[in-house]
Amino acid sequence: MIKLKWSYLLLWTFICGCSVKSGNEIDFLFKEIMDVHDEIMPKMGKIRDLEKQFRSTALTYPDSSELIRQAEILSSANEAMMIWMRDFNSNFQGSDLEKKEYLLVQKMELYQVKELMNAGILQGEKLVRSAIN
Predict the structure, then answer these.
(1) Which spans in the chain are helix H?
(2) What pLDDT digit, counting tens, does each position of 102-126 carry?
(3) Dihedrals φ, ψ of 59, to 5°?
(4) 3-state secondary structure (DSSP) of residue 83
(5) Is the backbone of residue 17 left (phi > 0), alpha (psi -120 to 50) or beta?
(6) Cα–Cα nearest to 6, from 114, 119, 112, 83
(7) Average pLDDT, the chain
(8) Whole-prediction pTM value?
(9) What's CA 100's distance to the chain center, in Å?
């Protein structure tokens, strides 16, 4: 899985390196990061709602281990997004190459956060549906 992620990163670096000039590439990477951020940011409310639902249900459910486990997955996804937002430096200073490298790393980290969030929501909703049936 890690090799696959690095392969995507290297492929993306190669494609971007061939298609746009450095200044434009930095702007493009920054915009892409902000677009992903804007896409997943609204999902944080859903994550918190599902987490609360699982934790409150676990208080009265005889076998609550799966509910607690899912709540922890959702909490981890939420925390990953909070950490990324806190650590992201939108005013990173450096050469164009340093900026590009920084943004590529940030992009990769944000896509990992996106995967965590989407997987947590998907698993949580699946668990909710199975509890209803």
Answers:
(1) 2-19, 22-40, 43-58, 65-87, 96-132
(2) 999 999 999 999 999 999 999 999 9
(3) -65, -30
(4) helix
(5) alpha
(6) 112
(7) 87
(8) 0.78
(9) 20
